[in-house]
Fold:
Amino acid sequence: MRSKNQADIDLIIKQAYDRFMECVSAESKNFDNAKNCLNEILQSLSTINVDSASSLGQRVSTLKSLINQKILVPGKQEETKEGNVDYSQKFAELGARFIQNPTRKFSDLKGMDEIKRNLRATLIYPFVYKDLSREFGISLGGGVLLYGPPGNGKTLLAEAIAGEAGISFIELNPAYLYNEYFGRYEKNIADLFRLTRETAPNLLFLDEVESLIPRRETSDQSVIKRGVTQLLIEINRLMTENTGGTVIVAATNLPWEIDPAMLRPGRFDQKIYVTLPSSLDRLEIIKDQLNKGYYSRDVDASLIAHRTEGFSFADLIYLFKRATQQAFFQSVEKGTKEHIKMDDILNQISLVKRVYSLDLIRKYELFNNQS
Ligand SMILES: Nc1ncnc2c1ncn2[C@@H]1O[C@H](COP(=O)(O)OP(=O)(O)OP(=O)(O)O)[C@@H](O)[C@H]1O
Ligand SMILES: [Mg+2]
Structure:
């Protein structure tokens, strides 16, 4: 059992920490106020008398050094105004990838017509037709969650939204951002969002968001829980104060593992189910593949589309890759250039494994109906 005294100190540190996060968040609005606020916390911490070798003592000194760093390194605000900051480098320090002018376009993705239309109307056109959207009072940016089985273009879609809107693309690496050392993880998150605000208009891509924002009740690690809280605060802030125009795209194969608070209205207004391709989508990508390779005349795109129900886009591409490798190998063995034949493709269809159970697809549909 801990003594009451320790519990009190624990509470003071927690409150000081929460206050620290508030001050840091206020920094971009008024730097001097933030600095005063940080000094007040330092004073409150100096009233604590605790053994510096104990775990409480270590938490106090870590918090103090975090605050001192913030107070003593005020240059970041001025730096950005000069406009010559190397943001790729700054994002890279947090393990994130920053692409100033992404080139991916919707035309790189087959099918998905309905999804593309939707995204154009809600997220992309406000950036493309800025003056008109201003006249209509439409704000730039917003949150969208993409969910569905693997290999159906969620990541490609996120990149293409940025490419179509003409905004920069930021991709996060959650493993790099994570840090067990007291307060470091939250600080990394706060820094990431500060850089995101500074580089708007842009798109922040949170891939595998269920690992970044897992249900808090299922996690026994307090660092993760505090990280989730911090992320939700930052996302909220970005969505409400979104003056520069930031789109947040989150993607997952496991939407039911995300903390429900993230899915509440105001954070991710659009939740898009990125399904397995329809037969028409499959036909489109199959025809595209047939145009690119050395296929014999008996290859029937409609029959392949019919036989590949349940395949993802990635499975379909893999199927043609395997058939092409097969024909290439036969050509080498026979010493003549062999076409890729319908039989080669049909053989591969039975070999390319489908990883999606009907149960899993039903789970996505249930989530889709509930959200
Ligand atoms: N709509 C599409 N048109 C063309 N190719 C696609 C499409 N969707 C996916 N692909 C192919 O599948 C590969 C995987 O796509 P992507 O990484 O975007 O899927 P994902 O849904 O993000 O998968 P995961 O859930 O595993 O991250 C792509 O590199 C591309 O070759
Ligand atoms: Mg992906």
